[in-house]
Design goal:
This is DUF3997 domain-containing protein. With 120 residues, the protein is α+β, with helices and mostly antiparallel strands. The chain contains 2 helices and 7 strands. The chain has one domain. Helix content is 19%, strand content 32%. The strands form 2 sheets. The chain has a 4-stranded antiparallel sheet with strand order 1-2-3-4, with no helix packed on it. The longest helix has 13 residues.
Length: 120
């Protein structure tokens, strides 16, 4: 009876494990989105198997879109003040982007001649 109980407990604990790497989307040029709720972020991997990488947009990424040249992301910084920042990543350069406020973001979008589409 003890063995059956031990096996049942072990199986129930195994089902509690959560593999956050199940929610990964390739963004091109070795960039990828790793969704994990409040820990969601965009990373740049130096190897093909995505075993880690450099954080490009820190958590919590709430929205993102991408094409062959750019990744555009929005995140919430800080758990208390929840400051919203925007990121424009030029995949061709591979440099670390800086967070932008909404005014800076829209100015950069206009300079790049982006057409942003809103979704309902």
């Amino acid at each position: 009876m003890k063995k059956i109980l031990l096996v049942a407990v072990a199986l129930s604990l195994q089902s509690c494990l959560y593999d956050h790497t199940d929610n990964i989307e390739e963004l091109g040029s070795n960039y990828y989105y790793m969704g994990d709720g409040r820990e969601s972020q965009i990373l740049l991997s130096r190897n093909k198997n995505r075993s880690g990488g450099q954080t490009v947009v820190p958590e919590e990424v709430t929205h993102y879109t991408f094409n062959s040249e750019y990744i555009i992301a929005r995140n919430i910084q800080g758990r208390i003040n929840k400051e919203i920042k925007f990121w424009i990543i030029d995949k061709r350069k591979g440099t670390q982007p800086v967070p932008l406020d909404s005014t800076e973001f829209y100015e950069e979008i206009q300079k790049l001649n982006f057409k942003l589409e809103t979704r309902k």
